Amino acid sequence: MSFLRNCWQVAAFGDELAEAPLPRRLCGEEILLYRASTGAIVAMHDMCPHRLVPLSLGQRRGDTIECGYHGLCFGPDGACVKIPGQEVIPAAARVHTYPTIERFGMVWIWLGEADLADPALLPDLHWTEDPGWTTGTGYLHFAANYKLVTDNLLDLSHETYIHGNTIGNGHDQSIAQYPVTATTEHGRLVRAHREMPAIAPPPFFAMLLAHHGKVEQIDRWQSAVYLPPGINMTDVGVYPVGTPRTQAVMLRVLHLLTPETELSTHYFWSMCRNAGLGDADLTARSNLAVDATFNEDRAMLEAQQRNVCAHPHTALPGIAVRVDAAPLHARRLLAALIDAEHANPRAVAAPVPLGTDGPPMLAQAAE
Amino acid sequence: MSFLRNCWQVAAFGDELAEAPLPRRLCGEEILLYRASTGAIVAMHDMCPHRLVPLSLGQRRGDTIECGYHGLCFGPDGACVKIPGQEVIPAAARVHTYPTIERFGMVWIWLGEADLADPALLPDLHWTEDPGWTTGTGYLHFAANYKLVTDNLLDLSHETYIHGNTIGNGHDQSIAQYPVTATTEHGRLVRAHREMPAIAPPPFFAMLLAHHGKVEQIDRWQSAVYLPPGINMTDVGVYPVGTPRTQAVMLRVLHLLTPETELSTHYFWSMCRNAGLGDADLTARSNLAVDATFNEDRAMLEAQQRNVCAHPHTALPGIAVRVDAAPLHARRLLAALIDAEHANPRAVAAPVPLGTDGPPMLAQAAE
Amino acid sequence: MSFLRNCWQVAAFGDELAEAPLPRRLCGEEILLYRASTGAIVAMHDMCPHRLVPLSLGQRRGDTIECGYHGLCFGPDGACVKIPGQEVIPAAARVHTYPTIERFGMVWIWLGEADLADPALLPDLHWTEDPGWTTGTGYLHFAANYKLVTDNLLDLSHETYIHGNTIGNGHDQSIAQYPVTATTEHGRLVRAHREMPAIAPPPFFAMLLAHHGKVEQIDRWQSAVYLPPGINMTDVGVYPVGTPRTQAVMLRVLHLLTPETELSTHYFWSMCRNAGLGDADLTARSNLAVDATFNEDRAMLEAQQRNVCAHPHTALPGIAVRVDAAPLHARRLLAALIDAEHANPRAVAAPVPLGTDGPPMLAQAAE
Questions:
Q1: Measured between alpha carbons, how far is A158 from A155 in angstroms, rounded to an integer?
Q2: B: neighbours with 3+ CB pairs under 8 Å?
Q3: Which of A152, A211, B223, C48 would bridge B235 by S-S if both were Cys, CB 3.0 to 4.6 A apart?
Q4: C215 C-beta neighbours (distance < 10 Å), count
Q5: How many angstroms separate the Cα of B353 from the Cα of each of B121, B126, C256?
Q6: Where would I find the beta strands (DSSP E) of chain B?
Q7: How far apart are CA C181 and CA C367, in angstroms?
């Protein structure tokens, strides 16, 4: 498997975890997650080392997990604390545990070398916690490799063909017509920026700009940002033509991808907006639209994954076109990071900031 | 895979194809079929060469297919005619297309070397178009290799055991009692002929002979004809004992088998009859009976396929009995044709006529 | 596959077999079972040697089986007695048959060398036929290897964690607290004995002791007995503290495991009790409780099997604890018997008695 491990990845939303343990496969590993009485998140291998049954079939007893087969108990550090029928507990009786941290509404897990798990290595997603932004969240399961999802997120020209009902402009103003600038920054992050001046507002943006009344034309920007292996952000701004860019309605859409297996992906998303703050009805309508939109991607990517499996000797893209620039940057960067970790299992690539809180400078859009 | 490719094979019934493109796997290849505005049938590889998604998830735009992911458009000849976001279209941007021809109510496809696709190589199934015959049609999907279906069609002794409700005589007049003559003709076609004089009419034939009133005994012939790889015809005649053979009710049942995969088969059938011409009610009842009958075969052959998969080292037949003569002719002939095509990828075996329009001469039945 | 073959294994309950043939996979082989007019049980390979279709899709004709495809008929000895369309029957036209014997309410089959199939090699399960005992029976299908089921049956400490609703004591009197004596007897049988004095009666035993009124404390013993490859017996006794051990309510629970495949098991059970003789209502309630109890095991073992498949390089147990003693005896003994049969395909290990009809001596419980 080709997963990057020395990095923080999203395991769950914070509000998924309470008393009841949650089993979830992450990067191929069966993991059991629960919130200890201290509030800290425990992540342990979901398999009893005695007879290999899932610990998730057992019971939580205080902050320990009791195996449902023979009653062995494991504490939050993974050490066995009880073996029914004997006093002595062998040192080998423990389950692997993983460092975790809770931040930005999410639970992060470190699947690599545990002593390298530094909270300072968390990516900065502060919009989810900033009172100047309101956030909606959701989860989808994609039966597709996470790299196919990243390809999708870095080339937004597909919005015209897949998302005409929500965020895509039609053929006459197809997204691909507007040039995109793809760059790799600091050897760590890919950014693909596009300006779309004087364009019709697709339905989702008309909804966000409703306080302006009916809007015929907007200026719109979109930056797809990728911090490998799994942090994607779409930085979007829209504003009626003639109004100040600094007063744009902005979105920071976080697409946080954690592989389940080589062929499936956990897709956690948070959409932060700087308008309609605290408007729960707008959040609800927005969440519905986002869920519908991402499910349109899911249908396409799952079909793509089936074809990729059926044609294992065909590389992606089969033919390269201009809009592939950013996905190609991303594939190269991810491969380099994975190679570096294979060469040195203690290699860690620190994250870099995804962007500023304001609109990107217009100069940035020049190709 | 061991499919013969330099030949016409049925891809669809003509009336399946209209505006909406139809995806279908044929001999392991994903193919998209649609009828162009000219009326001609387009068959193209159902996979965008850019990112390998099925083109069948896209949209038809005039006579082109627009990929549903990034909007690349492909014309009826497979050439890419549009790439959103750029003017230049690289020569590699094309999908494979396949020669097709529409005839006898069916769409035929040529999966082999395209320049060899000569309409003169179509088998002659003129009964489907002849005003002296009335035709009913249907389709079944068999989860079994096409060679198991051919074995079935060339040894009709199974009618007694599988099809007692429609076309099989019972144990006292079991089909196998009547000797069969199996021959390979012109190194190209297998024929297995049987005469069954003075036999009770099974229910299906009683229905066809209803205009004679209640019939106690009939003379019946059946010829199973096989033109590899996938053209099978059952040439059947029934007439009350004492009436002229030349006035027999005759059936030409076409069983047109196209492999979907090594383990599944598209089964297109057309039953042509020279009686009850234009009687739509008779056609409807007949179609129901045929569908039920072939589904009886399906249940048996799918079970057989599962056992064949579970016992890969057991050849078929495990023991050879007399009724295997025609299936063995067929297997030898098919293997020789496939070997010839492997040896010379441009080898083509022209079809030969399946039979005459009238009853076979009685002399032909002598063993 | 690692199945022991020179032994009697349960193929069915006797009352499953009547006129209609029953197909069942045993140790990976497809077998067709039916009761001949003589009352004897026929077991034949469920596959026609002609075209490999299941004979179970055919018809029974008297004591022969007629293949549903081409009508070949096979007698109770497996010899072909009819081939439609010909007089000569080749010697190769036969299906393999297996020795069978009916005893103790069950049909036993011998999958190994047929001439070694001696009725004297049947294990003695006389409780099912003894008027001093009343028997309830049932069947479950486990999607787990039979060795995982044997592990389960030889370490009953799991009753506390899986079976609290029926036969398990709670944490304060957990089964594992009571020492167990694990022995291999005669190089042929494993016994794990445990005494549980002055213990609360779990619901199932309270039901069996209802004639004593409300019972606060009981003395209880349990012996798990294993005669490889598939005979397991749980020898249980319960009696109110202060009443004579010789008047205990006793159970002889037979768990007769026959592999279906490497990953699935037929689980035939018979629970014999020496109390409430002939009480059909008690039998019905008891059967329901046993079925529920064993289904609790099934859920755990099927999850365990999935993990064992996913972690093929991890041996069982991953860590050994004290309660594994008897399962480890059993694995060693079974492996030795399989090795012996591989070394000498005519090796046979005769069964030894599972136990006496009375309570085990108390001295036996000393560790």
A1: 7
A2: A, C
A3: B223
A4: 18
A5: 11, 10, 63
A6: 8-13, 22-26, 29-35, 41-45, 59-61, 64-66, 73-74, 80-82, 100-103, 106-110, 134-142, 180-185, 189-199, 218-227, 231-240, 249-261, 264-273
A7: 6
Nearest CB partner across the interface for C160, out of A53, A58, A71: A71
The residue to which tokens 């010909």 are assigned: C86
- Say whether B52 and A174 touch across the interface (CB within 8 A): no
Nearest to A321 among B50, B53, B54 (CB): B50
B154: three-class secondary structure by DSSP:
helix
Burial category of A67 from C-beta neighbours within 10 Å (exposed 0-12, middle 13-18, buried 19 and up): buried
Strands in B249-261's sheet, in edge-to-edge order, are B134-142, B264-273, B249-261, B231-240, B218-227, B189-199, B180-185
Residue C73 CB partners (closer than 8 Å, separation 6+): C61, C64, C65, C66, C67, C80, C81, C82
Rounded-to-integer distance, Cα B65 and Cα B62, Å: 8
C-alpha B169/C-alpha B72 separation (Å) is 58
Task: List, for residues B172-223, the tens digit of each pLDDT value.
Answer: 999 999 999 999 999 999 999 999 999 999 999 999 999 999 999 999 999 9
Strands (E), chain A: 8-13, 22-26, 29-35, 41-45, 59-61, 64-66, 73-74, 80-82, 100-103, 106-110, 134-142, 180-185, 189-199, 218-227, 231-240, 249-261, 264-273
Residue with tokens 């495990």: B318
List Cβ neighbours of B128 (8 Å cut-off, separation of 6 or more).
B104, B105, B106, B135, B254, B270, B272
B162 close to C (CB below 8 A): yes
Contact indicator for B109, B99 with CB cutoff of 8 Å: yes
Q: What is the ipTM of this complex?
A: 0.95
User: Facing residues of B45 across strands?
Assistant: B31
Residue C316 touches partner A, C-beta closer than 8 Å: yes
From residue A312, alpha-carbon distances to A309, C169, C310 in Å are 6, 55, 23
Which of B53, B85, B86 has its CB closest to that of A300? B53
Alpha carbons B280 and B286: distance in angstroms, whole number: 10
Over the stretch A302-338, which tens digit does the pLDDT of each residue have? 999 999 999 999 989 999 899 999 999 999 999 999 9
Q: How far is B51 from chain C (nearest CA, A)?
A: 32
- Kindly tell me the burial class for residue A318, based on how many C-beta atoms sit within 10 Å of its own C-beta (0-12, 13-18, 19 or more): middle
Whole-number Å distance between alpha carbons of B25 and B8: 15
User: Nearest CA to C43 among C33, C28, C51, C56?
Assistant: C33
CB contact under 8 A, C160 and A90: no
Backbone angles phi, psi at B14, to 5 degrees: -55, -35
Q: Quick one: tokens of B217?
A: 């005994």
C200 DSSP assignment: P
Assigned token pair, C23: 């197909």
User: Which residue from C minimizes the CA distance to B315?
Assistant: C51
Q: Which residue of B has its CA nearest to A309?
A: B52
The model's pLDDT over C210-267, given as tens digits with 9 standing for 90+, comes to 999 999 999 999 999 999 999 999 999 999 999 999 999 999 999 999 999 999 999 9
- Contact assessment for residue A35 and residue A15, using Cβ atoms and an 8 Å cutoff: no
Closest CA to A256 of A9, A2, A64: A9
**C-alpha closest to that of B221 among B367, B363, B366, B360:** B360
Question: Could you tell me if C66 lies within 8 Å of chain B, comparing CB atoms?
Answer: yes
CB spacing of C321 vs A58 below 8 angstroms: no
Q: Are B209 and B181 in contact (CB under 8 A)?
A: no
Give the residue carrying structure tokens 């059909």.
C280
C-beta of residue B44 within 8 angstroms of C-beta of residue B63: no
Q: Which residues contact B347 (CB under 8 A, 6 or more apart)?
A: B6, B340, B341
d(CA C311, CA C313): 6
Domains of chain B, each with CATH number or no CATH: 8-116 (2.102.10.10), 124-365 (3.90.380.10)
